[in-house]
Design brief:
Blueprint lengths: L1 H7 L2 H31 L3 H28 L2 H24 L5 H25 L9 H29 L2 H19 L16 H13 L2 H33 L4 H20 L7 H21 L3 H29 L5 H13 L2 H15 L1 H19 L3 H5 L17
């Protein structure tokens, strides 16, 4: 509680935290509402895949451009603009649903535009958080934001179901549109501090290259991004696509996968709370090690570990995921030039998401040919081996946790 009070004393962070708590809950409402809407209209999983695929492709396709503009413009104002765009898109969708005039092509178009807008929001948000707190509180700010996202993962689906059952799917989208309007209003009150000198503006292509140089000249950055991109394909795709099927085969009921997901969520919340205080000497290396239980969990569930042991391991897994996420975000914020932070973050997001849709498809095809449990078990082992490679760079193993008094490399990005 003392750490929370220290954070919330800072006015700009307080407004940013409140705005994202509200809009993140709205986002989680939409995930469920979209699935229910498509199921209600067509009953086709292919249609749902088309809608979600349109969102993902647009989101990944615009991430790098979003990073450039987030480093060019005041980040909080760019976030206000993206919130207003997303509010308008889901308000339109709500009207179409309420008027019983929505078609799949409209859903595809709206969600593609929504994904493109979010591609500008994410890098801006990652760059803005360190501008709302003192340097020594960046880790705590990231931890509290992670905790909020975890709570939204639980609250959003419950609210979505309640809204759909009581007032209908259209109103669920209307609520989400309202959360973006409230978020935009709160963000107008943010007055972020300056971190370092702004980079001189050139062409978009040149700034993209400069951002990529900030990534490739730091082995601890590009190796970690590459390894976790591979881990998402081998492990996370298996978790999402095969988890319910394997849970049904090993534990007698596919719904018990929900218990496992809840255990992971509980661990993520605990890990976020732990990150409010814990500053290990080598946070990045330890975070990578603590990410390995997720991969091992997949293999153990695949071979038939008892449900109670699986749930315990799921909780441990969540703790590790949360700690790595907080320490990674903090390391980027402290060691990347502030004028390039959003671009580096956009490369990070792209590395994490670009191959994931392909991973979903490949995992599904392999499971049909080889068996779900076999694919999930091997995928977990491959992902665990890849994480060991993330520890290869000496920079990764030696990266310390001490927060500098001023942003590292706070001047303009070298040209």
């Amino acid at each position: 509680m003392r750490q929370l009070r220290r954070l919330l004393r800072h006015r700009d962070f307080r407004w940013l935290f409140l705005s994202q708590t509200i809009s993140t809950t709205g986002d989680r409402i939409v995930l469920v509402a979209l699935a229910l809407l498509v199921t209600e209209r067509t009953g086709s999983t292919a249609d749902l895949g088309l809608v979600l695929g349109a969102y993902t492709v647009a989101n990944v396709g615009f991430l790098l451009i979003g990073g450039v503009w987030a480093d060019r413009l005041p980040r909080h104002r760019l976030m206000v603009a993206t919130d207003l765009v997303r509010a308008g898109l889901h308000a339109l969708l709500a009207l179409l649903v309420l008027a019983d005039a929505v078609a799949i092509w409209q859903l595809v178009a709206i969600e593609a535009l929504f994904g493109a807008a979010e591609a500008f929001f994410r890098p801006a948000y990652s760059g803005l958080v360190p501008q709302t707190v003192p340097e020594e509180l960046i880790q705590e700010a990231n931890a509290l934001n992670n905790l909020t996202q975890t709570i939204a993962e639980f609250a959003g689906p419950a609210l979505a179901t309640a809204l759909v059952v009581t007032v209908g799917t259209g109103w669920a989208f209307a609520v989400d549109a309202t959360t973006f309007l409230v978020s935009a209003l709160l963000l107008t009150a943010v007055r972020p501090r300056r971190r370092g000198a702004p980079a001189p503006r050139t062409t978009v292509l040149r700034e993209l290259r400069d951002g990529f140089r900030e990534v490739r000249t730091r082995a601890w950055v590009w190796v970690t991004i590459a390894v976790f991109g591979f881990q998402n394909v081998c492990a996370f795709a298996c978790y999402v696509v095969l988890g319910p099927t394997v849970a049904g085969a090993r534990w007698g009921d596919p719904a018990r996968f929900g218990w496992l997901a809840a255990a992971v969520g509980l661990g993520t919340a605990l890990g976020s709370l732990l990150a409010l205080r814990w500053r290990p000497r080598r946070p990045l290396a330890l975070g990578i090690v603590l990410s390995m239980p997720f991969c091992l969990m997949l293999t153990l569930v695949a071979v038939g570990v008892p449900l109670a042991a699986g749930l315990a391991l799921g909780t441990v897994t969540g703790v590790g995921i949360a700690l790595f996420g907080v320490w990674w975000q903090t390391a980027l914020a402290q060691r990347i030039p502030p004028a390039a932070l959003s671009r580096v973050t956009s490369y990070d997001w792209m590395g994490s998401l670009a191959l994931l849709p392909v991973g979903y498809v490949v995992v599904g095809l392999l499971a049909e040919a080889l068996g779900p449990a076999e694919v999930m078990g091997v995928g977990g082992l491959l992902a665990c081996a890849a994480l060991l490679l993330a520890l290869a760079p000496r920079e990764t193993r030696r990266l310390g946790s001490a927060a500098p008094a001023e942003p590292v490399a706070a001047g303009p990005v070298s040209r």
